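Co-fold these.
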Amino acid sequence: MTQFNMAENAKLVRKASRIVAQLTTSQKNHLLTTMAQAIEDASDVIITENAKDIQAGKDKGLSDAMLDRLLLTKQRIVDIADAIREIVTLADPVGNIANLALRPNGMQVGKMRIPLGVIAMIYESRPNVTAEAAALCIKSGNAVILRGGSEAIYSNVALANCLHQVLENQGIDKNIVSVIPDTSREIINELLKQRDSIDLVIPRGGEGLIRYVTENSQIPVIQHFKGVCHLYIDKYADLTKAVNILVNGKTQRPSACNSIETLLIHQEIVEEFLPLAAKALADSAQVKIHACEKSLPYFKDATLATTDDYHAEYLAQEIAVKIVDSFNDGLDHINEYSSDHTEVIVSQDTSRTQQFVRAINSSVVMINASSRFSDGGQLGLGSEIGISTSKLHAYGPMGLSSLTTEKFVVIGDGQVRD
Amino acid sequence: MTQFNMAENAKLVRKASRIVAQLTTSQKNHLLTTMAQAIEDASDVIITENAKDIQAGKDKGLSDAMLDRLLLTKQRIVDIADAIREIVTLADPVGNIANLALRPNGMQVGKMRIPLGVIAMIYESRPNVTAEAAALCIKSGNAVILRGGSEAIYSNVALANCLHQVLENQGIDKNIVSVIPDTSREIINELLKQRDSIDLVIPRGGEGLIRYVTENSQIPVIQHFKGVCHLYIDKYADLTKAVNILVNGKTQRPSACNSIETLLIHQEIVEEFLPLAAKALADSAQVKIHACEKSLPYFKDATLATTDDYHAEYLAQEIAVKIVDSFNDGLDHINEYSSDHTEVIVSQDTSRTQQFVRAINSSVVMINASSRFSDGGQLGLGSEIGISTSKLHAYGPMGLSSLTTEKFVVIGDGQVRD
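Predicted complex below.
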């Protein structure tokens, strides 16, 4: 392989971005539908290439969980194609003008949604990201640079070949989707300098990758470090709702970033609530408990919680528990330990719930609902390209519209300024 | 002066940001009104301090234009106070939920506007920025770190003292407005590393300052490098509108970034339009012309335009002129040389104007109106804190709402996920 020239590649993608930005919704949908079919039709080839990644992964001694995330089967390839077809059904945000206001001098002023331009995804393992991120970018009128990890390189290139074949057949510049074949760290450094060509970088992977990209990028980065989600049970909580929301939030899919990691309980409801909670957590999934001194006696086999536990994103059947003296102490704990992901209050008291919503500025704030709903699909955004826990540009789950921006459109009839 | 600890200061401002975020609109308006009055009342002190900056500027040999930008007079101090009072009248974006949608399971999902948190302004000369930026940040619920240039340090500190006095009298943490007394470059480097405390950096000044901040910041930066605004006169242009929009765009205030720097003319309208344009530009302000070969004969004393002229932000009574063969050649020229600020088409043809709006993705795209309207106040945003020519977070003139973000608010009644 000749050496990959990142700057040159980024310029080609920038040029191609003008083409995808001008495609109509029908053209984009037709393109995506054809891509979905092409991926299904190529499943034998994709599985053969994927087998090389799996073999290399075994040779490197990857864990079974890692290998499973890498693996592509017939069914998983159908799932990828279906995910693209799902994106076809989403509304196209590009070109919309929400409101065209009339200025005193008769000019109309509005803001039109437009694509960002070029989006770079830097991600690890799961090869489905290659196809789904490409589809979300195309649907929102963006060109995309995909830099997957070395462990999935054969699978990623096989998927990219399908997409490029479709683009070629339809006579569209294939640089609107660019898969970087170089999996070195140096190429990431090069990528992060191309601020004249790339508008946004979205890293998906472990905290190390995201920190590295944030600290080295000259291009804006969507950050999602971790999800330390809090559930606060108020003294005015409905106990049944509280137990259900706790069990669902902690045990339904503990490996997800929107799972509950810390349970806070108002001291005046401890007597009624904690015995029910302890039983429910033990019954449903034998959740490991890290309890504060006061709550420790309510659990069997709990360990004493440390400050580290309140910072922990367990991503497992494990939870930190703390009794707080007051509503305000609950807010203070959340403000101190929050990862700006998702926080939930369970309370029937409307003043408390209102105050909670105003005082907590995490990206998703919930009243009487499971944190597991903190997800683009569940919140009604359609497919999700990531979750931002930093406030700039997008905050919280990101759908298609987070891949766009707005320009001002002014419609005059000869107006000049006095 | 003891050494200024930037990290420590930023942490104090971050802490204070929670207080300003929770103030009601009435509280913020009362605070700002009192600040405006305090500045007016302190005008003697401010003028005395400003005189030190002016003297230092003279000693350093600053130009008369620079000294004029630094100078504060009684009237200019009243203007600063009035600018703050104007901000009081603006609608408060914080707390608004644009739309609360119902999900199939009965949960309500909306997005609430919230302050960004801590905003850092890095700016040069004009001391009025100190007061106006502070007021815009307070009104939008943000804390602010102000780092003005050494040439205005006495004026900036005098203004900050007024603001701090008001905060102290009202019992509000004075760290919601922090003026950095250290004017070294090192302190900027320190500031740009405080990403745990600062949410957004807005540099205002020359291209050198903005590039420096962009290349060295770990915090998101609002970029505004320059305004190379284009005016395209289509073959279907109304000639009277075209001449008015040209003269207004170029000569009304040539030092503004929304002035026209390049005039493009469709070849089929050259004969009718250029003689009128040449006369109007000569009559109104003796504009210096850099013309392409074909347009050169239409002007007296024009020089031949080079590629540099098409990149130039003259900020003076000076313009580049080019005849284009077709509408598409006009689009291509703009896409190549655009600074993503403002572009204008003059045409009576609705297909052409529509196509122009779709094909040009600068932050402000105008039909039949003067580029001089590309300004927060003129577009209806109220006071402007800056103009972004990069697409992330904000694009184009930025008002109060660009100093906020949106969090998701979910209102349930015990829902859990299946």
